[in-house]
Amino acid sequence: MSLPRCFGVLGDPVAHSRSPVMHAAAFAALGLPHRYLAFHVDGAGLPAALAGARALGFGGLSLTVPHKQAAVALCDELTPTARRIGAVNTVVFSDAGICGDNTDGHGFAAAVGELAGGAIERAVILGGGGAALAVIDAVVHALQVRDVRWVTRDPAALRAARAPDAGVRVIDYAELAAGPLAADLLVNCTTVGMRQGPREWPVALAVDSLRPGARVIDIVYPRPHGGLLDVAEAAGFVVQDGLPMLLWQGVRALERWLGGPLPADAVTAMRAALVG
Predict the structure, then answer these.
(1) 121-160 as b/e, with b when 16 or more CB fall inside 10 Å?
(2) What does the pLDDT look like over 37-81, one tens digit per residue?
(3) Residue 21 exposed, middle or buried by CB count within 10 Å (0-12, 13-18, 19+)
(4) Phi, psi angle pair for 63, to nearest 5°
(5) DSSP secondary structure code for residue 220 in this structure
(6) How far is Cα of residue 186 from the mean position of the Cα atoms in its chain?
(7) Considering 68, 106, 149, 215, which one is annotated as catalytic?
(8) Rounded to whole angstroms, how far apart are CA atoms 98 and 135?
(9) Maximum distance among all alpha carbons in the chain?
C-alpha cells in the first residue's frame, strides 16, 4: 500500500477552491491514502510555502491567484510549457528541486472541446494574469485561433513583459468598447465575479454583439448569479463556467504527480465531486 502523502493548493483567496474535493475523489477512486488541502498563502509567503512543502515531503502543489507568475522565479526548473506561458500552476517536487509546470492551457483546451460549435476564428480574452497567459497559449497553439484580442487594463506593461504571439493584439478596455465584440469565443480570465473580487469590468461588455453561436467561458467559479454567463446564456450563446477547465488541468496535474495516466473512473469521480 502507498504511504500517505500531502498535496495542496496555495492561493489568496483560496477558501472557495473546489480542488480539494476534486482531488480527494480521485484519490478515493484510485485507492490511495493521500490528502489534498487548501492553504491560504499571500504573495509574500509564497517562497517560504514552496520551500516548506518540499521540506515536508509534499507530493505536489497547485497554485492559483496571485502566485502563478511569481512562482516562475522560484522554481529550479520549468517545463517547456511553463516557460512558454510564463506562469506556473503545478509544482512537482523531486530530488533535483522544484519543477514548475503549467496544466491550465491543457485544461482550457479540453474544456472548450466539450462545447458544441464550429471552428473558432476570432477570440476575445479578458485579463492579463497567469490564467490569461495559459488561455492565450491554448487559444493560439491548441485551438489555432488566428485573430485574438487580448484585453488588459495596462497593454503597455503586458507588451513589455511578453512578446505577443502572431495574430494576437493586446488592447485596453476602451479600444474593446469602441466596436462590436464580433468574436466566436469570449473568455473571462479576470477576477471579476470571483468572491472578494470586483463586480464589473472597466467598460460594459456588449455581449449581444458576439457572432451567432459564440461560446462564452468564464473561468471564475462558482458561477456568479447575474454575471457574464447568465447574460450570455439569456442572449442565446453557449456558456461554460470554470469547472471543466479545473477538472482537466487537475487531471493533468495528477498525472504529473503520480507518474501515469488516470483511469476513466477516476476522472468520472473528479467530475462528479465538482458538480456535487
Answers:
(1) ebbbbbbbbbbbbbbbbbbbeebebeebbbbbeebeebee
(2) 999 999 999 999 999 999 999 999 999 999 999 999 999 999 999
(3) middle
(4) -120, 135
(5) -
(6) 15
(7) 68
(8) 24
(9) 61
pLDDT at 223: 86
What does the chain come to in residues? 276
3-state secondary structure of 88: coil
Distance CA(247)–CA(112), nearest Å, equals 12
Instruction: Give the number of other Cβ atoms within 10 Å of residue 93's Cβ.
Output: 20
3 state DSSP class of 263: coil
Q: Average pLDDT by consecutive 10-residue portion of the chain (276 residues)?
A: 90 94 98 98 98 97 95 97 94 96 97 93 95 94 96 89 83 96 97 82 95 95 90 97 97 97 98 93
What is the residue type of 157? A
Do the Cβ atoms of 140 and 109 come closer than 8 Å? no
User: Would you state the pLDDT for residue 1?
Assistant: 59
CA pair distance 225, 239, nearest whole angstrom: 14
- Which of 169, 138, 176, 173 has the alpha carbon at shortest distance from 152? 173
Distance between alpha carbon 150 and the CA centroid of its chain, in Å? 16
Supply 77's cell numbers: 526548473
Read off the C-alpha cell for 73: 522565479
CA-to-CA distance for 124 and 127, rounded, in angstroms? 10
Strand partners, 77: 99
Query: Which amino acid is present at 103?
Result: T
261 labelled catalytic = no
Q: What's the CA gap between 104 and 276, in Å, rounded?
A: 22
Domains of the chain: 6-102+244-275 (3.40.50.10860), 106-241 (3.40.50.720)
